[in-house]
Specification:
The protein contains 15 helices and 23 strands. It is an alpha/beta fold and about 475 residues long. Helix 2 runs antiparallel to helix 4. The longest helix is centred in the N-terminal third of the chain and has 25 residues. Bound molecules: nicotinamide-adenine-dinucleotide (NAD).
Length: about 475
């Protein structure tokens, strides 16, 4: 069984308390690895190491930090197959998704922010009151906390800009999927990454996450996860006046108009609801469909959903795997029962699959209005609802009938309408005639219950630095 120890001060470290947690294979429901069950003592050691490493790391020339990130990316690129296999087994995600999308994206994150380190510039303001220029200094030791749904993808999305900007990091991956962060730490040791610059502490949120976010030496917290935990972290950080970035849940609408190329785009529309078994914060879980095509759309969509190849995630033909854990399986099954109780019609799925592991059939529901709990609360599983609309204004009202505001996709050939809706929908990310098209320079994040702040490109580099204005009188 693979063991996942902490990685502190450049080396693997056993948990101070000697406790370990099981890590499960979602396709069988059986444990296949163990992870350190850290506590405040491990956090203390990691923050101390990061504090000692900060002066040297932050004073390196930007090019030197960029080279380290590039070397880590090179080492990862040389092991894509291994990382993809491990990610697939750990999270139950189809291996092709891990190999073709997620691990390459982790490499891209490291390379993108390596470049950012060398391109990052600050502003000057001349003329109004002398000459002002802005210095942007790294913050110090920062904490990153990431979830299980895109383990290495989101882990690197946070550590890369933090390190590029000159900070040292204590990273806490999800205890549910700790494998690839552990392997990345092993790669860092192998290439001689400076000790203490990147530390990984494993364990449960209350045992490791909370001591980390409350440590007085932590200057900023970058968190991706559930809205409930995000609020808890914000509550701890607020009285400490600590900088936080919160990427939280979503309940994203997919607006399909009759004039769109929806028949040609069915594969993308199905992916947008069911990729990674719906366990992506950007998945469109509420389909809003113009009434004139409603029946035809539902029939075609459901047929395509039923054709998804469900199977063992490590089989390259598998398109749809299990949910990540027993706890998440139970949550999704409870949401399905609640949907039935509030009057949902099940167009397909609606049940667990009769096989080992945590498989829930891809499910499409309708006959639920915007007030239904199923349409308001994040399920984060393979459950999509469909609602009809008669007009653009009704579509907009339905799209905005949620407290979340992460992303939306709009499907229409009418450009005016697309741009009107893009401006009217309350969300941080809107796609027109596409889904999950990502340019790493763009601001990434949500509004309302979906979070606070933005990641990506300059937004991330700014989050991980402190601006200092310098004003000079010009006489
Ligand atoms: P989670 O909130 O349960 O856990 C996320 C991380 O926080 C884990 O590492 C966990 O150990 C840690 N944690 C838990 N309790 C903590 C505490 N009290 N203090 C500090 N840390 C704590 O979320 P999850 O179930 O792992 O992930 C699923 C959620 O993440 C969904 O709601 C999904 O929408 C969201 N998500 C959002 C984005 C985005 O970019 N907005 C991306 C991916 C996932």
């Amino acid at each position: 069984m693979k063991r996942c120890p902490h990685f502190i001060d450049g080396a693997a470290r056993e948990p101070a308390g000697g406790r370990w947690l099981d890590v499960f294979d979602p396709a069988s429901g059986r444990p296949f690895a163990t992870v350190a069950a850290g506590d405040a003592r491990d956090v203390e050691a990691a923050v101390a190491a990061a504090t000692s490493a900060f002066p040297a790391w932050s004073s390196l020339p930007n090019e030197a930090r960029a080279r380290w990130l590039d070397r880590l990316a090179d080492a990862l690129e040389a092991r894509v197959d291994l990382f993809a296999e491990v990610e697939s087994r750990d999270g139950g995600k189809p291996i092709r998704l891990a190999r073709d999308v997620e691990i390459p994206r982790a490499i891209a994150n490291l390379r993108f922010f390596a470049h950012a380190a060398t391109q990052f510039a600050s502003e000057s303001h001349h003329g109004q009151a002398g000459l002002n220029y802005t210095l942007r200094a790294p913050l110090g030791v920062v904490a990153t906390i990431s979830p299980w749904n895109l383990p290495l993808y989101l882990f690197t999305w946070k550590i890369a800009p933090a390190l590029a900007a000159g900070n040292t990091v204590v990273a806490k991956p999800s205890e549910v999927t700790p494998l690839t962060a552990t392997l990345l730490a092993e790669l860092a040791a192998e290439i001689g990454f400076p000790a203490g610059v990147l530390n990984v502490v494993h364990g449960l949120g209350p045992d490791v996450g909370e001591p980390l976010v409350s440590d007085p030496r932590i200057k900023a917290i970058s968190f991706t996860g559930s809205t409930a935990v995000g609020k808890r972290i914000a509550g701890i950080a607020a009285p400490l006046l600590r900088k936080v970035s919160l990427e939280l849940g979503g309940k994203n609408p997919t607006l399909v108009f009759a004039d769109s190329d929806w028949e040609d785009q069915l594969d993308t529309l199905v992916r947008s609801a069911f990729q990674n078994s719906g366990q992506i914060c950007l998945c469109g879980s509420r389909l809003l469909v113009e009434r004139s095509i409603y029946t035809a759309f539902c029939d075609a969509f459901v047929a395509r959903v039923q054709a998804l190849r469900i199977g063992d995630p490590v089989d390259p033909d598998t398109q749809f795997g299990p949910l990540v854990s027993q706890a998440h399986f139970d949550k999704v099954m409870a949401a399905l029962a609640a949907a039935r109780d509030e009057g949902a019609r099940v167009l397909c799925g609606g049940t667990a699959l009769d096989r080992p592991g945590w498989f829930v059939a891809p499910t499409v529901l309708d006959r639920l209005g915007p007030d239904a709990v199923t349409n308001r609360e994040e399920i984060f599983g393979p459950v999509a609802t469909v609602q009809p609309f008669d007009s653009e204004s009704e579509a907009l009202a339905l799209a905005n009938a949620t407290d979340y505001g992460l992303s939306a996709s709009i499907w229409t050939r009418d450009l005016d309408r697309a741009h009107r809706l893009a401006a009217g929908i309350r969300a941080g990310i809107v796609w027109i005639n596409t889904w999950l098209m990502r340019d790493l320079r763009t601001p990434f994040g949500g509004v309302g219950q979906s979070g606070l702040g933005r990641e990506g490109g300059l937004e991330a580099m700014r989050f991980f630095t402190e601006p200092r204005n310098v004003g000079i009188a010009l006489r």
